[in-house]
Design brief:
CATH superfamily of the largest domain: QueA-like
Number of strands: 17
Largest sheet: 9 strands, mixed
Helix content: 10-25%
Distance between the termini: 28 Å
Structural class: alpha/beta
Low-confidence stretches: none
CATH topology of the largest domain: QueA-like
CATH architecture of the largest domain: 3-Layer(aba) Sandwich
Mean pLDDT: 95
Number of helices: 7
Order of helices and strands: EEEEEEEEEEHHEHEEHEHEEHHE
């Protein structure tokens, strides 16, 4: 029988949703799930290095979150800048969209944008008369469940310490726990996937397999590919890293090659859910995810749906902090 979206539901008290980060990045708790035995442990993130083998490689997403949410000078239009196509051209999500037909204008920080095209999915192509200064006029598009607007603290903390490639709408949250000191002690490599709104769009299909993912752009260098192939085990830091590695995975029996050793540049709409056979990833560090989301489905494909739901049940009982600014889970 096909899995249904409701099969990935769980109850979460609102009080367990982390609206703000801890004072220290590495102070998070870490729930450890052992896939083979089904054992679950309650540990601390600072103990994470103890779970790595000598031949492990961490792969992290070095995307950098931009202040993509802007409000029109008259306060009547809100835009989410999804993708910069040129210095003065952006693909945007606009609210309310009905007012912003082709040819209509909006002004942000004294800069005027004109709707040049309305895409079939409702996004707008806006051409501005000068480059938008998102650092000055933009806001971070914090997830709705935080129930608040962004502030100056978020400019630092809703960003990994290794972020360098601008373009994400949301943070790759599994990476938020790392400090520069911890990362220096661990073998690691980077790829880039700009986290977009598609990752967080709800699954509306009743049957899981009927859901269609939004494509997201990624880049992975030949140097990272070589290190992935040389590793004994690849530990993905986050679901975004997992999706990229599995999207380009081409394991060849007996060859030891997980991915082709070239520069990879493209987009992926891979949707990982049970049943799925992983080709590249052998360990996963991830945060806790929303019920019935594509992200909890990915984790369930890696560790098994029943085991993941039991882990979440225990996390609720033990009052872990959930979602972007919350605690983490290591699956090995």
């Amino acid at each position: 029988m096909s899995l249904r979206t409701r099969d990935f539901d769980y109850h979460l008290p609102d009080a367990l949703i982390a609206a703000r980060p801890l004072a220290e990045r590495a102070a998070s708790r870490m729930l450890v799930v052992y896939r083979d035995s089904g054992r679950i442990e309650h540990r601390l993130f600072r103990e994470f290095p103890e779970f790595l083998r000598p031949d492990d490689l961490l792969v992290l997403n070095d995307t950098k979150v931009i202040a993509a949410r802007v409000i029109a000078d008259d306060g009547k239009i809100e835009l989410l800048c999804l993708e910069r196509l040129s210095p003065v051209t952006w693909r945007c999500l606009v609210h309310p969209g009905k007012r912003m037909k082709t040819g209509r204008t909006v002004t942000v920080g004294g800069i005027t944008g004109t709707v040049a095209e309305v895409f079939p999915n409702g996004d707008r192509l806006l051409r501005w008369d000068a480059p938008l200064d998102l650092d000055q006029h933009g806001h971070l598009a914090l997830p709705h469940y935080m129930g608040r607007a962004d502030d100056l603290t978020d400019r630092e903390r809703y960003q990994t310490v290794f972020a360098r490639e601008e373009g994400a709408i949301a943070a790759p949250t599994a990476g938020l726990h790392f400090t520069p000191w911890m990362l220096e002690q661990l073998p690691h490599a980077f790829l880039t996937l700009h986290v977009g709104v598609g990752t967080f769009r709800p699954v509306t299909a009743e049957v899981v397999a009927d859901h269609i993912m939004h494509a997201e752009k990624f880049a992975l260098s030949a140097a990272t590919a070589r290190r992935v192939n040389a590793a004994g085990r690849v530990v993905a830091v986050g679901t975004t890293v997992t999706r990229v590695l599995e999207a380009i995975g081409k394991r060849e029996a007996g060859s030891g090659m997980r991915i082709e050793e070239i520069d990879h540049l493209g987009a992926t709409d891979i949707f990982i859910h049970p049943p799925y056979e992983f080709q590249v990833v052998g360990g996963l560090l991830t945060n806790f995810h929303l019920p019935q989301s594509t992200l909890i489905m990915l984790v369930s494909a890696f560790a098994g749906r029943e085991l993941v739901l039991e882990a979440y049940r225990q996390a609720v009982v033990e009052r872990y902090r959930f979602y972007s600014y919350g605690d983490c889970m290591l699956v090995v």
